Amino acid sequence: MKKKLSEMNYEEEGRVGSIEQDLKNKVAGMGIRVGKNLKMVTKHPLKGPIVVEVDGAHTSLALGMADKITMEVKE
Amino acid sequence: MKKILLMGNPNVGKSVFFNRLTGANVIESNYPGTTVDYTKGYMKGDSEDFEIIDVPGTFSLEPKDKAEEVAVKMLEKEKGNLVICVIDASKVERGLYLALEIIERGYPVVLALNMWDVAGDKNMQIDIGKLKNILNIPVIPTIAISGKGFKEVMLSIKKAASVEVKEIVEKVGEIK
């Protein structure tokens, strides 16, 4: 199932399906690229940032950035 | 005096590295973003002295915030000087991304795989020989808080030379 990274729930895992072009280089430096497995760790309230796990490391992203990343989530 | 820049992702131990190389005492803490501006220090080598510059952590060379802007400007200002790229051995991929960007801009790079003990604790195995072979630059496992690997870093400073990214890409292609 496809959904935005920003719509994922706590502890949910998925594979990065696509990233909007203008964001690609920005997140590549944080180890996020198409095909990577991510796990949602924290979602801060009031449209705050999210924290995801990539390769065993935690990385935070603005919610607006997470909106531009499409994930493939296992049912 | 030759200059050496310490670059790497945020929170990989660049400042601990800096303190160890120079004997200085800059603030180090376990947060990303501890170093917002740069710090300079001096190191005595066996034949010559070096000026060491502790650069704020950055994920890439396309700055997203003030600290990263400082980092990129520093690098551009010190064109041609040696860069010690400090990366977190337990987060190799994002570290290598930055290292490659620096190599691509033509700087001679020494790669320090810091927090080697942390990677070991996480059961990660990194093939140093293979990395060296692909990148064609000195790759040294280090533990900045204990001092492991620093002798090798000092020795490899002389050996570092700039590498063409094209050659690296070709070598990666061979492996596949």
Overview of the structural elements:
The complex is a heterodimer of chains A (75) and B (176). With 75 residues, chain A is of the alpha+beta class. Chain A is built from 2 helices and 6 strands. The N and C termini of chain A lie close together (7 Å). The model of chain A has no long low-confidence stretch (mean pLDDT 88). With 176 residues, chain B is an alpha/beta fold. Chain B is 38% helix and 20% strand. Chain B contains 7 helices and 6 strands. A 6-stranded mixed sheet of chain B has the order 2-3-1-4-5-6, sandwiched between helices. The A-B interface holds A 25-26, 28-31, 55-57 and B 9, 58-60, 62, 64, 88, 90-91, 93-94, 97-98, 122.
Structural class of chain A: alpha+beta
* Total beta strand runs of chain B: 6
- Annotated CATH architecture of chain B: 3-Layer(aba) Sandwich
- How large is the radius of gyration of chain B? 15 Å
In what range is the share of β-strand residues of chain B?
15-25%
Distance between the termini of chain A: 7 Å
Proportion of residues in helical segments of chain B? 25-40%
Give the terminus-to-terminus CA distance of chain B: 42 Å
| Mean pLDDT over all positions of chain A | 88
According to CATH, the fold-level topology of chain A is SH3 type barrels
Low-confidence stretches of chain A: none
Number of helices of chain A: 2
Q: Any guess at the CATH architecture of chain A? A: Roll
Within the largest sheet of chain B, what's the order of strands?
Answer: 2-3-1-4-5-6
- Strand neighbour order, sheet with most strands of chain A: 1-6-2-3-4-5
Question: So, the CATH homologous superfamily of chain A?
Answer: Ferrous iron transport protein A (FeoA)
Brief characterization of the structure:
Chain A has 75 residues and is α+β, with helices and mostly antiparallel strands. Helices cover 16% and strands 43% of the residues of chain A.
Write the layout of secondary structure elements.
The complex is a heterodimer of chains A (75) and B (176).
Chain A: E1 2-4, E2 13-19, H1 21-28, E3 37-43, E4 50-54, E5 57-61, H2 63-66, E6 69-73
Antiparallel strand pairs in A: 1-6, 2-3, 2-6, 3-4, 4-5
Chain B: E1 2-8, H1 14-22, E2 39-44, E3 49-54, H2 66-77, E4 82-88, H3 92-104, E5 109-114, H4 116-121, H5 128-135, E6 139-141, H6 150-156, H7 165-175
Parallel strand pairs in B: 1-3, 1-4, 4-5, 5-6
Antiparallel strand pairs in B: 2-3
